[in-house]
Amino acid sequence: MFDYYIVLGGSLDPYQYLQNTIAMIQKVFHVVDQSKFYVGPSEDPEIHDSFMNVALHLMSSKCIDEINLGLKEIEMRQLNQGCKIVDIDLIIQMKGDQVLYQSSKIKYCHSLITLKDVFLSECQLRSLIMEKYNANPSAHLFLPFRID
Questions:
Q1: How far, in Å, CA of 17 to CA of 60, rounded?
Q2: Which domains does the chain have, with CATH numbers?
Q3: Closest by alpha carbon to 3, among 55, 52, 53?
Q4: Measured between alpha carbons, how far is 116 from 111 in angstroms, rounded to an integer?
Q5: Other CB atoms within 10 A of residue 49 CB
Q6: Which pTM value belongs to this model?
Q7: Rounded CA separation 25/31 (Å)
Q8: Counting beta carbons within 10 angstroms of the beta carbon of residue 81, is it exposed (0 to 12), middle (13 to 18) or buried (19 or more)?
């Protein structure tokens, strides 16, 4: 079995679309845990929208290519005028305590803040996630989403 950590994000009616996407993921994959929803600015200076993000911890015996293919199919089910509404990034693949894959997107605050909620195993990677999150100058801009 592999542990996969994914981060989902969206800016167009994000809570509803992220909830729909999570429901689709749950139909295909075993979801172990889910982070809080967080809202924050885009980390791309060219994009001025706010985004909502959430992380999921999945477990599967499927290889990373099969997981990526399944996630891309789910992304493509939710399009608005040919554009993705929800972005799904596979950030980490592990087997036991061994990291098999780590995306370069782990450096972004929207990944770090959500991953810290679901990455529970005490290991060197969790320490690295917490260290990077605590040192990230944008961390204070990402706030938990609350339904009022």
A1: 24
A2: 2-144 (3.30.70.560)
A3: 55
A4: 9
A5: 11
A6: 0.93
A7: 8
A8: exposed
Distance (Å, whole) CA 78 – CA 71: 12
Q: What type of residue sits at position 83?
A: C
Spatial neighbors of 103 by CB under 8 A, at least 6 apart, are: 89, 90, 91, 92, 111
Q: Tokens in use for 10?
A: 């969206």
User: Other C-beta atoms within 10 Å of 80: how many?
Assistant: 10
- pLDDT tens string 70-128: 999 999 988 777 788 899 999 999 998 899 999 999 999 999 999 999 987 667 888 88
Paired strand residues for 7: 55, 89
